[in-house]
Amino acid sequence: MPPDVFGALANPVRRQLLDALRDGPRAVNDLAGSFALSRPAISEHLQVLRHAHLVREEPRGRQRFYHLEPAPLAEVGAWLHPFEHYWRTRMSSLADVLDEQSGQNEQNTTEDPPS
């Protein structure tokens, strides 16, 4: 996996660009129209994604279309997979604590008559 994949994914605009490409290739002007950023700013974000091999550029006449490249994302998913157990356990423990507190709150409300 290229080392800059995580850096590319760290930016929320770049994650939104990848999300926009999930349904298929899109022209850079089309992508830029979805953001409150200038076209040059979007082009810079797309260049970072291209260098990280997360998208590929396809020239069509005067337009540039961008395609999602899922392989690096699959590698990120594979790297994250061992951590899923940790987070599931933590979230389950949190849910148990919240359920316990909710039960205590319900019990306190039924025991305390209104004044």
Shape annotation: elongated
Helical region count?
5
Strand order of the largest sheet: 1-3-2
What helical percentage do the residues reach? 55-70%
Multimeric organization: single chain
Strand elements, count: 3
Which class best fits the helix and strand makeup? alpha+beta
Largest sheet: 3 strands, antiparallel
The averaged pLDDT comes out at 87
- Detail the poorly predicted runs: none
Primary descriptors:
alpha+beta, three-stranded antiparallel β-sheet, 115 residues, 5 helices, 63% helix
Question: Which SSEs are present, and which pair or pack?
Answer:
Layout: H1 5-9, H2 12-20, E1 26-27, H3 28-32, H4 39-51, E2 55-60, E3 63-68, H5 71-111
Antiparallel strand pairs: 1-3, 2-3
3D architecture notes:
The chain has 115 residues and is α+β, with helices and mostly antiparallel strands. Helix content is 63%, strand content 12%. The chain contains five helices and three strands, in the order ααβααββα. The protein has helices spanning 5-9, 12-20, 28-32, 39-51, 71-111; strands at 26-27, 55-60, 63-68. It has a three-stranded antiparallel beta sheet with strand order 1-3-2. The protein is elongated and about 75 Å long. The chain starts with a helix and ends with a helix.
